[in-house]
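re the bet — no i am not wrong, look at it urself. input seq straight from the record:
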Amino acid sequence: PSGCLVLCLCLSVFTLLLQSLWVPPEMTRDEPAGRSPEEQGQRGLGFRRLALRLEALSTQVQRLSRERDNTQLTRDDLSLLLQSFRQDQQGLAHLVERELKRVSQRLDQLSRQHHHQSDTPSTHDEHRLHTGPSEKCEVPMDPAYPVCAEKVEFLRARWQSDPCYGFYGVDGTTCSILTYLSQIEDFCPPRLGRNHSAPPWHEKPRPYTEKAEIRTTLSPLYQVISNSSGPAINFIRSRVERMSERWIQAGLRMRQRSNKTVSTLMRVLLYPGALAGSVGQRFESMVETGGPLGELVQWADLSACLTILGHKLTFSTSQQQLQSLIGAAPGRGSCPIQRPLTFDLIYTDYHGLAHLQGTMGLAFLHYQCRFRILDSFGTEPAFNLGSYARAHGYKTLWGSWGLQPLQYMTMFPHTPDNSFLGFVSEEAVKQEAREEELEADTYRKDRIAVVYGKQDYMWQGKSDYVEVISEVLETHATVYQTPGRASILPGFIRNHGLLTQERFLRLLRRAKVFVGLGFPYEGPAPIEAIALGCVFLQPRFDPPHSSDNNNFYKGKPTTRQISSQHPYAETFIGKPHVWTVDVTNKTDVREAVRAILRDEVKPFTPREFRCEGMLERVHAYITHQNFCSNSVPTWPPESALRAHLGPLGQSCVSVCRRSSLVCEPALFHHLNSPAVFTRLRIGCSSMGQEVNHLFPSYNPWGRHCGLQQEPLLFSCAGSDPSHRRLCPCRAHLPGQVALCPDCI
């Protein structure tokens, strides 16, 4: 009876495995393409191999039974298998593996016979990887290809989950799988008699001979974006057209000033993923109802900047077109692209990054060094490295892409671990005409205030604050009004409704004060208001807003503490152009407004938010940043380094800022050695390498000196009460935080 019981249990397990592990192709599209179960880390290795083998055999049995009437899977095969279960209960796993291997070999033979008999040509013969009709295929055990067997098992079970495998010639047989894994994915050794060659999608050496020279027209950009349409694209085109003369003049001045502006011509793809697919539809619907426009401002200015610098641009907001542009194989994105990537740089955002991963397969990792991610609020290294983020509580919906942190490009220079891309402050009239007129007017302004907040929810709880301002200034708003809905704005507000950018700039030109309500955070409008001579009055946040206490920042890959609505304006510009107040204290607000009215404030634009500033910054990035090299960074040069050992509990961002410097993560590797601790006369009783985003650092308790083991975790951000951070600081050009005196 016990033997029967064991037999029944074994049969039940066998049946359940087949039923529970069978995943129909339509249910696998969300699974990361081309990953083995080992990479996904879901089950034990031995059980997983057996389970996948059972699933693969089930697939082959079903397919071959449909294709051939004389398939020799008889009762004898099953009887032999059942006898094995009875004879040796303790060796169950070994016997199952041996018997299934025998049946598998028989099925492979039948499959090869079937395909040999079939003479129907494939519609993708030029892509299919043919195998000889009588070729005998066994999975090689080559230490140089350690995951080959695992990949074979995976594809035996899942080759039908994505049509791209069939496109590349995989038909479920071991031979076709091995051919694919050796020629397309490079996980298995070359087949017998075939030379090893790089996969067809690997980069071919490119003779970088063509040079990019500064253009005096934006016509190429207009042609590039003419294929797209919609409110967002209309906004981008309109902004570029308004500012075209300023861009052209800035390019001419840059060319006259230096002959170092000629660089290698780059083939650049601009893909704003936030404008593509269903996300794009939602974003488009907000453009004309007061939604966020900061990202569009950046895309417009980046497009114009790259065009003036002479690079070759492609612009797309279509996921379908993206697949064509990068040469994706037909299917769901599990396979690599068909050819080498034809773009030297791809500028996208977090949404676009996900789209690229979903269409490039294995090629995504190969080419990710070419990506540049527009990321308004920044991504700190602790959130960027997936394994570290999961292990230390930094896992969010964003981040975990494992890029070089400097590949993320921010709206403002708030996260030195990232590259500051920025934008250009728009002005109502040409620079020359504005200066002449303002000289005659002595910068006179009307006694009006314009409130920064285009949607009515931003005004909630701010009526008392705005009312204090309205006591001495005529107060205007530009809030989108839903048709047929009563306004919730206070009666003393003159609301213009949602204005075009041109009319909004004209209103700011008349205004004395631009009033922040506390939201939106860190947008471009305050910089443009200051450029037009307004004083920006904004709320102070006490305690600072962060992912710990604020829903907007919750889930964002940053630990920044936001001290005001616009920290850049507060820190880098300050009085008399920026006043930061406690808006709950009416006395403070009144005194600030009176002081503002007493001052005559001239328009001011930091160099980094002018056309020339953005041109020289982006030119420097394209010329010097190379994330595809395995060597340590050489830019900025080591001569720019100013090493500082910070106090306990301070980040390198704070340590460097305290000395009027900025933290430069590309210089960390110069500090990550025992010799540096010795040179700085730091007495270390012990020293070791760790994967820790606070390292290199010094712990005075125990006098332990820590070195960084993972270069992706070199981080200006991050502090701890027990660590003194060793920080790579540098100086910066006046009004250009991204560049040091030795950088250009």
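see?? Residues 546 and 561 are 5 Å apart (CA to CA). told u. also The chain is about 40% helix and 10% strand. so pay up
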